[in-house]
Amino acid sequence: MSVQTVVLKGVKTFFTIKPKRNPLISKRRAVYGAIAVVATQATDFTSTVIGISQAGATEGNFLMASVMGSYGFLGFFAVKALGALFLSWYTYQRKYAPWVVAGIYGAVTIWNSVAITLNLLAS
Prior knowledge:
Blueprint: H1 3-14, H2 27-54, H3 62-91, H4 97-122
Helix pairs in contact: 2-3, 2-4
């Protein structure tokens, strides 16, 4: 099986309408995955709020910027909370999905932290 086939199969498996749960994954691991997803959503929210309110950063995601422009940080929080709940449900009892999502949002948090630090050092 070629690398391209494996990657394509992985992408198709990850982005399905109805997630396929793996009953062999323990409830403990599934809960840890859900906690990781929620925690990284929370760190993304927190670092974004700190970056915008204290370091003069701007939101890079135009959809989130639109939400914040219309509803402020409370609207942003609502979207992040709903996103965290959805992603936790979607990735629950899937082998790699919660860790991929947590890794992506962990990277976003690191990016936000670097931007905060650079903005604060520049001022």
